[in-house]
């Protein structure tokens, strides 16, 4: 339904703006939910062309064949409006060199519809923008909650000494290797002592034995 309203709006808008070239910018249709008696601002940005004019149109949600020309504005911020437009509530203005806006104050339910803008440069090149669906007083749909990620990061296992009568699981090496080193040190000390005494002269060994 939204795309049908947008297509009808752009088709009717082509009768109001007779340009030498027309480009339809593919963008997703934006939906706005203003509050009743609130203020809504819709933007129309220039892309790929140097904008000289902007034209605003709207299609009533309940009247598919009724497209209303709202008005236009140029780079000098001079605006004009179509017949039947409440200029006390509708205001088209130039925000910057690359942006125009349509502001609606005291929004009512009758303002519901699809709003579209057409940008035009000095060479009559037209850029048709995708429409904006206005739904005053409608509660925006609730977005589904994001799934929670309950997965915890993996914890590296800490090697602890096992209880009695339980498999070693590689922890026995923590005790075995220091014990092997100690025994190897004692063996080395014993070998060095025996080697020392074996190298002593016999007299020294006899004298050493006498003292004992």
TrEMBL record:
It is a single-pass type I membrane protein. One of its GO terms (molecular function) is coreceptor activity. PROSITE patterns: IG_LIKE. Residues 1-21 form the signal peptide. Its main location: membrane. Residues 42-121 form the Ig-like domain. One of its GO terms (biological process) is adaptive immune response. It is found in: Membrane. This is Cluster of differentiation 8 beta.
